[in-house]
Amino acid sequence: MTELNQLKQDVINIGKWVDAHNWCPATSGNLSARIDQQRILITVSGNAKGELTENDLMEVDSKGNPYNSDKKPSAETLLHALIYGHAQDARYIIHTHSVYGTVFSRAIWNGEIRFNNYEMQKAFRGVTSHEQEISVPVYGNNQDMMALGREIDTYLASNPSCPAFILAGHGIYSWGSTVAEAKRHSEAMEFLMECEYKSCLLLK
Ligand SMILES: CSCCC(=O)C(=O)COP(=O)(O)O
Ligand SMILES: [Zn+2]
């Protein structure tokens, strides 16, 4: 199998994985893989992530413009391009619209979520202790991708090893250098968001 075909298969399989967890209901979410420094493989806008075929994938350039394709890329392509631009070892990006990612972030809206004293923090690359705080930025949701992109760009420029961010009331972006790492970061974020939500119920 060529490297490009392998990437296509990886994205299709990640789509089945997020769908099995119900993290991308309806046609929500988007997925991508870095082909090389110039090209990104990304999901076409508006398709169910559990039923992706090669026709639901397309190439864009490093700025997010369609590359040899007349299909419409994900409406959030710019965010994928920004992540790949800053996180040089990111190879796969997973954007989910899970219930906990959506609901809990509405309580923060703009700022950050700090995860402390969860053993699960060790799922993130380079973290070896529950005492190593993980801070994940939360951005107010915005239909203006350029404006959202500017905020995210500023943060990633000074925090290039950040493994995830959250769009409030919208969903979670996670990434990694391999399929396994991107899925691990994504799953850890989903778990921690559910824990934080349930912790709030305990404190009521
Ligand atoms: C019902 S999903 C609304 C759009 C969105 O947030 C999303 O993740 C999917 O957009 P895309 O253009 O990638 O299909
Ligand atoms: Zn989205």
TrEMBL record:
One Gene Ontology cellular component annotation held by this UniProt entry: cytosol
Reaction(s) catalysed by this chain's protein: 5-(methylsulfanyl)-D-ribulose 1-phosphate = 5-methylsulfanyl-2,3-dioxopentyl phosphate + H2O
Enzyme Commission number(s) from the entry: 4.2.1.109
Pathway listed: Amino-acid biosynthesis; L-methionine biosynthesis via salvage pathway; L-methionine from S-methyl-5-thio-alpha-D-ribose 1-phosphate: step 2/6
Top-tier EC class: lyase
Keyword field contains Amino-acid biosynthesis: yes
GO biological process, one term: L-methionine salvage from methylthioadenosine
Family: Belongs to the aldolase class II family. MtnB subfamily.
The name this protein goes by in its record: Methylthioribulose-1-phosphate dehydratase
Organism whose genome encodes this protein: Ketobacter alkanivorans
Organismal lineage: Bacteria, Pseudomonadati, Pseudomonadota, Gammaproteobacteria, Pseudomonadales
